[in-house]
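Hi, here's the filled form for the chain we discussed.

Project: internal
Contact: R.S.
Residues: 425
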Amino acid sequence: MKEEKTTLICTVGGSHQPILRAIEQLRPDHVCFVCSADDPATGNKGSYLQITGKGNVIKASPRDEAPTLPNIPTQAGLEAGRFEVLEVSPDDLDDVYRKTSRWLAARDSRAGRIVADYTGGTKSMSAGLVAAVLDAEGVDLQLVSGSRSNLVRVESGDEMVMPAGVEATRFERRFRQALEPWSRFAYEESLMALRTIPPPQDRESCGRLQLAIGLSEAFAAWDRFDHEAARDRLSRFRPRIGKQWGSLLGTLDLIRHPERGEPLRLFDLWRNAQRRAAQGRYDDAVARLYRLLEWSAQWILREEQGIDTSDVPPERIPEGIELTPNREGKFQAGLFQAWELAARLGGDSVRSFWETHRERMLDHIQRRNHSILAHGFEPLEEGHWRPFADWLEQTLLPLLLERSAREPYRIRNLPDQLPDHFGLG
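And the returned structure, exactly as it came back:
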């Protein structure tokens, strides 16, 4: 079986002993030395001189007046081809992070084990390498340390290689990043990112990951109107989330009720349209408003008169309203005709709504008909969505709330919006 190759990437500063100790213990096949470039202000040479300098370039002791030792690869027995130099700006954290991240990404497919040692170099060099490693899955992190007689340096000869535990930190970074799409209700996107996170060994963190995956699955299902799947998934976590999201759980239970759930499904469609608009998907959002208008008239007719707009009994068609039978002889009512029927048969509040807002409704419908998701080719923008949504919120929703407050519904408020942040530990 072929032995896995090891690559070491390490920061280089003023002391060579920790680097030699790391190479001695790890015995890497390849080493990338992250070194400082020349100082542009003073012209002082960077730490790359300890790697590529000719002759004696390193002081055996800081107290020595002149260098007495050759470069680090020579001392470590690294022949040409087994090492490289990555020059960075020593006090520019962004530069260090960017260059080491690119190097790690390029090496990922070619190397076996990669170990990063952040012992040497400036604070910015160490911090930049550590930050890059935390973003790179599968890279081990270590430092060389030992006994100290002061806070300045480890005593030479006492150095030892120590692994740096980063699993928890790496998990937290990836976990937060994976949940960021919740802020725009993109639960499916979060779900895909969460599933790429390796389960941490820590039991509590593993539980948080499982919870986040389950909730992302549930809200993604809810967001695509799959309320049964959403309930199945959320029911597992009811004891954990009931205090924070009890109202949502109650809404989901009632949405599925065969007799009382339809008004909530209408309001759920409104919330869904708002989420699409929050994502900048205005064509989708306006399409949902159109469906909400149509469905509202259909619900009113079913609730008040038991009339199904897909098959209106001829004797129930009021004088002055013309419906044309289809090929099967059924009289069907589209959106505008459904509202005409509802205004005639649905009571005073519906008739008042229709008489007051008929022309405005027609304007919004015509704008929607020009969209690419209807009968035209025009992509809709926020300027198309906002007037339609504002009008509907000020006129239609109050009408629906008035009617849904009655028996058997007893719904007096709009349901809560789905969450835009995780907020559970």
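Let me know if anything looks off before we file it.
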